[in-house]
Structure formats: C-alpha cells, structure tokens
Amino acid sequence: MPQRPVLIFPKPTTVEREKLPRSNIVGKKLSRGWQEVHVGKPLQQLQASLERRSLSLSTAAVGTIAEEVLVLETIGTVDDFISAVRRIPGLEWLVSFDSENTTDDAENEEYAEIDEEDDSMTASNRVFALSTNAEALRQLLSLWNRYTKGEAFAHGFGAWKKVFAHLKDVRFWSAQDRIGETGVIEFWQEALEMGLDNISFTVELWFRSNDALRAVVYRNLSVLAESLGGSLSHPYEHKPTAFHGAIANMPPSVVKQFIEDPLASAFLQRTEVMFCRPLGQTAVQPSANDGFIGDVRAPRDAAAGEPIAALLDGLPIENHAAYDGWLRVDDPDNWAADYEAGDRNHGTGMASLIIRGDLGVNEDPISSPLYVRPILRVEPNDHRRPRREAVPSHRFAQDLLEIAIRRLKHGSFDVAPTARSVQVVNLSVGDTSRIFDGTMSPWARMIDFLSWKYNLLFVVSAGNHPALNMGMTLTAWEALSQEEREREAFIACWNDVRNRRLLSPSESINALTVAARHIDGNTTLPPLGSTQFMPVQSSFLSSLTSAIGPGNRRSIKPDLTFPGGQQVMRWTGSGLTCIPSDRPPGQLVAAPRISLTSTAHTRGTSNAAALCTRQAIKVMTMLRSLGGESPAVPEEYLPVLAKSMLAHAASAADGFNRLRQIFDPSLAMRVDQFRKRYVLPFMGYGSVDLQRSLGADDHRATLIGWGKLRKEQAHQFDLPIPSSLNAFRGKRRITLTLAWISPINPNSRAYRIARLWISKPSALLGTSRSESEWRTVRSGTLQHEIWEGEGAVPFADGSTITIRVNCREDGGALADAVRYGLAVSIEAASQYGLPIYEEVNEAINIREPIRG
C-alpha cells in the first residue's frame, strides 16, 4: 500500500494560554523558613537578598563580572549537594530554577508529587552562587568563614550549616576556576614537551555590556601580558551572545609558572579572566587509510534547483563520483590552494552521507544540491601524517560560523547572498576540550543566536569519546559472555558519565543534537582479533562512544539517534578504545584515496548528524510538495516543521527495554524515573523511523500545523477522532510533537526566552503517557510525547481531541512572535485494518478543505 501524504490542520483558533498551577515548593516552605527571622546588622544585606530571591544557586556560571559569582566546591557530587539543599526547608528554592518546574510542578492531580531527584550529572564538582549584589555574596562567604571556624550563626541562619556540611570550599572566582577543568593544563604541558618558542591559548573574559569597559579590560590585560614577555591578539567580541575573548601568546617560562603555581600568577589572578582554554581543539580524527579501497558508481540523476542544506565542515573532494554534480562549494578564502586532496577526509565523508547516505545501503541521492563552506582546514605548516583538519589557529569557531552564515544568507558589501535558499545547516564537528558542564559554550550560544536570527535548523553531532575505562583486566573481560560485555560496557560509560558528556556546541537548545546508533549497512562482519571486540551487539542502542546528555537545565539532549556505524574496539590497558579503520564495519562513504571512485568505512556521531540532515532535506522536500503548484506550507515554517517531524517519528522503546535489563533488572525504579535517568541521556527521544517522518498509512493519520505565538498566547487545534475507534478495544497511539526556535538571553540562568508547550490533550481515548517524562520534555525547544492504550472508550460522533500550544516568557522579555511546528498522529495497530486516515481526512475536509 503506498504511503499517504500528511494532512494539514485547519487554521488554529487563538485562545488564552494554559494557566499552570503553582507549586507550593516556594510559597509555604519559603515563608515557613524565613518569616520570623530577625538578624543582626552585619547580615541584613544577605537576609534582604534572600527575601528578594536575588541570590540563587546554579550549575552554570552566569555573570558579567567575577564579583557576581561565588564558587561552592562540593565534597561529593553536585547531585548529592543539590538534593540535600532541596530538602532543607526555606532553602530548596535556591536551586529550584535548575529544574524547568520552578512554578509548574503540578500539571494536574495525577502529577502532584514533586520529584526531588535531580539528574544534573555535571562534569564539574562546582556550584555557583549568583547575585547582582556583590555584598550579599560577601556576606555568604562570611557565613562560610564562620562555619569553618566553628563560630555561632545569627538566629535564622542555622539552615546554612546543613548546606556547608556538603562543601569543602567557598570562594570567589579564582585561578583554579580559570584553568582547572578546561583542559588547558594538559594543552600547556604538551606544548612545553614539543619545545615551542611561543605558546598560544584562548582567553575568555567576563562579558561586560559596556563597550568602553570591554575596551579598557582588553587594553589592561594586554599591558599585563606584554609585561610578562607575551602578548594578547585577535580580540573578538559578540554582544548578542555575551562573548569577549582573545588569543594569548606567552613564553614557555611563563606557561610553566602557570602550571606550577597558578595562584602566584598575576595574569591568572586577574578578575577580568573567566577561562583559559586550549587553542584549535575543534578538530576531527584523521582517517586510518589502512589499505581498504572500495569503489562507487556515480548516481544516475543530477541535482536540481537551489540548495536546501549547507555543510560547514572540511573541504571535500569536489568531483568525487559519489556526488559529482551535487556540490556548490563556496571557498572565499581560497583554502583549497594548500588543502591537499588526501587530507580532505571529513568533508568528503559528510558530503557523501548527506547526498547518498550509507553507500552500502545503495539509497537514492537527494534531489537538491548541497552548499559547502569550509570552516575546517589543514594548517600549511602541519607536517604530521595524517594531518589534522581543524578550525584554524587564532580563530574562534563561533566567529567563523557567523561569517559563513551571514555570507550565505545576506552576502557582504560586494557579494550577493551565496545560498539564501538554505534552511538546514549540518555541523558535524565539536570541541574535544569542552565538555558541557552546565554553562552554555560560546559556540552553542552562537548557534542558538543564528538559529533565531536567520530561522535556520542546525543539525549538530553530540560528540565522540573514543576510549572507555572498563576497570578490569583483559582476562576478566574475555571470560564474559557477549551479553555481559554489552552490559558492563554501558555500566562503565555511566560510571564515567561526568567525563563523557556532550561536546560543545551540541548543548545548543535550538539545534537538533544527534547521537550515534550502533548500526550500519554491513550484514557480515570480519573476524575479530585476540584483542579486538565489538562490545555492543544491540543495533537499537546508541554507540558506546556517543556523548551522553542531558543538556541545559536538564533538557533532553541528545534529541535523536541516527545510524552511526558499528564500532570495533581494541583492548588497551584496562579498557577499550576505538579502532580508526577504513575497513568494515561502519558506513561506506566517499574517501580521498587513489581515485575519484574510492570509498572507506567511517563511524561516529558526525555520520549520524549527516544522515539526520539528509532526512531533514527529504522532509522539507516533502513539505514543499504539499498543495502541488500552490505550496500549502509557507517557507518560513519549514525549519520548525522539519524539526518537529523528524522527532515525531522517533521512539526509544527497544532501547528502553535493553537499558532496563542493564541498569535496573529488578525493576526497582519507577518507569518515568528510569527513563529520565538512563534512557534520555543516552538516546534522547530515540531512533527515527524514516518512513514515519515522511507520511502516513491507512491505519495512521499524521497532521501538521504551524503558527506564530506571542507571550501569553495559545493556539488551539482540534483533531477529529476517527469513528472506528469508538468503543474499540485494541492498541492505539496518539503522538504529539512540538518544535520551535527560541531567542536567547545569555545573561540569564534560564537562557531560553520563549517557552512553548503542548497542554495535556482534552481526550486521551484510554491512553497514558509512554516513552517520555512529562517535566523533562518541556525543558528544551522540542516536546515529543507518545500516549498509548488498549481499553475500549466510547465517545459521541464528531468528537475531537483539543490540542493547545502555549507560549510564555522564560528567561527574558519576549518581544517577537515565535514560529512553531506541530505534528500529531492518531493510529491503531495495523492488524486491525481500521480506516483511520480516511476518517480523519474526511472530517478535516468537511471543516476546511484547504489551509490558507
């Protein structure tokens, strides 16, 4: 039976947004903890800040100056600390904003219980006390000093003793915070071992909104650098994303002092400095080129029209047979002049996957050309073999990204826009030195800003962690069965989760972040050697090397999983590490080898993101075809609708079952707790059924809707209930997916300005939530929920399910209307043969034949 096209909702009606009930977690407990407090004059400033709630705790360092951030270093994990504070009457609200449910914890009576479990899984052991009132922070530090000396507290402040019991230090931002968990120490040590005459690294400065103050900060820091025999160069600032930085160049002797005694360094003690970070870490792993040479034939058809997608990556081989005629390469800086063909690995592979998919599967190419702009290159003075493709030294990745997007959308003074038709951007690169620790990276902030400014859907790879410490001997590993190896490997990933978090910029809230699924087109595998293993055998699980979420404010990240290739690993020491090889398994892609038909096998989250981009192109092409010569879907809604429809076809059901066997075989945890803790961080919303994202079937009707909402507005959609479901007893499902792109406020802890959400449907037809945790799905810019059931439910003819899309401000003033895309499916199991599609289609046409 041919696939049915998606249906279009009639225009929604504008209604008042849902008024969510307020949790009493702030109200009663706060007043009970503080209403009778009387303090002495030295602590009145802190008490006033507490009463105004201008003092808060966060896992993200947000401030414009160091004096607005007090560092609380925990004894145990951040999770333990936050959980402890939440349980202290009168203080739990201090960290409640880190959950999306500060005021909206109770959707209805069914979910009145407050889930106090907090899965921050931060990569740091630091929490930050934030306030624009520096005096309040100094008074808090004074309380800590009293605690460490064993002095008595003023009446009403005893609760802080319970907080301090979980801390080993409280301090203002210091040298150890500037270099402690940035990877720069290891970077410096490697540079010293290489005997470099000059060592360059990135300096991120606290962003001040005043232009003149930023100039003064840079000038003063430059003078200090010069007094040390170094310099500061390449200043870069970007006001919309609150970034100010530069490149520091220092003699080896000074860098050695930085490592040996950072507290004695005047440079590292400067309050203007937020972080020192490695330079040029945004790189891709070179290909092994181990002798495998495959072959590919050119596609029969040719690309037509204008590009829908852009690939920002390394420079690909332009006329490779796998995609000859499909590329529109834009290289305004002429990087191709010293970018040898043999070094063009990553861009070639990504272009091949976007255009042709896994060549081992032999899929048809996309119909439109692919716009390519290089943001990675091989440095001309890099004499290593194989040479590394990376963001050029002395350039900020987010700067290159903004320049590339501005050129394709707006052009420049003397150049017209190079690809204004582009609506989806593939970014299969990441910063290996920057693990998401709760603070949004500058690169992620830039993606979120550009997404909103230019109405673009970014598809970003979650990042790879190629090595895994198993904590056992090879003999013990070999004694395990294959099923036990898979189990132990995932447990080892979880035990090291703080070091396997998302890589920048994949924490972006507006982008689709893609993890790698352990599957490819290979059906037969080569024999493995004595120290070579494939720990994962379940094709529906994510790869062991794929980075783990969650994202900002516990949002679901990664969003989706796509095939990323089966990964063979080698035993090294007490663990496993990936084997980079051109040989199978893995996805077959175009490769710069001995001829223009050469192929190789690759794997990882880069591949998964490329395949997601390929599917986004197909979805947009399908949406453009609706309505024939008079397109039914306005172009401006294609990015949010494609984002919605890709997630709409996602499910993590198979992965859930296997992960439950691994992490909770006794079924001790509640289903929603388990899903939030283990399934969503590994798999997000799950694997995408590519056919479901493109249409419907006789037993399933998929409808799409779209619109713009301003703050405090809501749109109501009415889904006709198929009459064949009346009193029907059998499996049925309702799927709801909402996607939007939000403006951001980088100076707010909430960060996301526009919060949209779908209200609980008015009729559920005997279904209940499946595959989601209702609070977590509302934390990002993508809400995907599945409702399933089997019981018979009677209803009147002509009944509808009311679906309300709501909008309100979150992290700042929402001045503009926000575009959203909605996808809704209603279906019954295929074996019942119910005419769901026809019944919904008929009801829609009676109400409004076509949406204008």
In words, what does this structure look like?
The chain is an alpha+beta fold and 852 residues long. The chain is built from 19 helices and 38 strands. Helix 11 packs parallel to helix 12. It starts with 6 loop residues before the first strand and ends in a 5-residue tail after the last helix.
What's the arrangement of secondary structure elements?
Layout: E1 7-8, E2 13-16, H1 24-34, H2 44-52, E3 56-58, E4 69-74, H3 78-86, E5 126-130, H4 134-149, H5 159-164, E6 167-172, H6 175-179, H7 184-193, E7 199-205, H8 211-227, E8 231-238, E9 243-250, H9 252-260, E10 273-277, E11 283-284, E12 294-295, E13 309-313, E14 327-329, H10 345-356, E15 370-374, E16 389-390, H11 397-410, E17 424-427, E18 431-435, H12 442-454, E19 457-461, E20 467-469, H13 474-478, H14 482-495, E21 503-504, E22 512-517, E23 532-533, E24 560-563, E25 569-572, E26 575-578, E27 587-590, E28 598-602, H15 605-625, H16 638-648, E29 650-651, H17 653-663, H18 671-683, E30 687-688, E31 700-709, E32 713-720, E33 732-740, E34 754-758, E35 768-770, E36 782-789, E37 800-809, E38 818-828, H19 836-847
Helix pairs in contact: 2-4, 7-9, 10-15, 11-12, 14-17, 15-16, 17-18
